[in-house]
Specification:
Elements (H helix, E strand, L loop, with lengths): L4 H10 L6 H12 L5 E2 L10 E2 L2
Antiparallel strand pairs: 1-2
Length: 53
């Protein structure tokens, strides 16, 4: 069965593109290890989650 546009919209609103659980775990680990990074650098192709300067 296919979803109605309203159901699909509701589903897509719930999907996070930033600060996901796995991303936050990696960020905490990197920060605790003393590594610094930038988030979501739009100057790079694809808008990566983490960028090491």
């Amino acid at each position: 069965m296919s979803e109605t546009p309203e159901q699909r919209s509701r589903t897509m609103r719930a999907v996070r593109s930033r600060d996901t659980g796995p991303e936050m775990i990696v960020r905490r680990f990197l920060h605790a290890a003393g590594l610094r990074y930038r988030l979501h650098d739009r100057r790079l192709p694809g808008v990566p989650d983490l960028v090491f300067p």
